[in-house]
Amino acid sequence: AEAMGVVSAVADAVVVLFSLTIAVGVPLIDAQAVLSHDAYPAQLRDLKRWYAAEFDDYLMAQPPAFFRGLLCLELAFLWPLSVATVYGVLARRRWAATTSLMVGVTTLTSLVTLVCRPLPAHDLLRACWSEIKCAACPSDLQNQRSTPQ
């Protein structure tokens, strides 16, 4: 029973840290891509530019329309849920599990969108085709084989 208390405390700490990161990062950094630049001090604008350059994050440097849509979703839905989750976990509210689950599902949905977006289907198939070795083909035919039509 005592081990479960430790596991629960560690899980709560991870959820609070994750939710706190979202609660702080979304309005201060991510929202710069959708809100007026005048709404932010120069230090925060410089931090966003530094991050985009340092980590070669083209989505933050020049956010495409789909990414701005995801950021609007973060501002309208994920950010308030993250704030509620931090409060709920720290205050030991029963509903914190629900808001935490909602934050996780929203984050996973955004992550899938971001991971799949840069790889259109034809590029993914071409990459996979170049890595697959055809066991039925003689090795000299494998070398002559080109990408699928």
From TrEMBL:
Transmembrane segments: 6-29, 65-89
Predominant location category: membrane
Signal sequence coordinates: none
Glycosyltransferase keyword on record: no
Record's GO cellular component terms: endoplasmic reticulum; membrane
Keyword Repeat: no
Pfam families to which the protein is assigned, alphabetical: EBP
Record's keyword terms, sorted: Membrane, Transmembrane, Transmembrane helix
Record-annotated EXPERA domain positions: 11-149
Compartment(s): Membrane
Membrane-related topology note: Multi-pass membrane protein
The protein, known as: EXPERA domain-containing protein
Organism this protein belongs to: Aegilops tauschii subsp. strangulata (Goatgrass)
Taxonomic lineage: Eukaryota, Viridiplantae, Streptophyta, Embryophyta, Tracheophyta
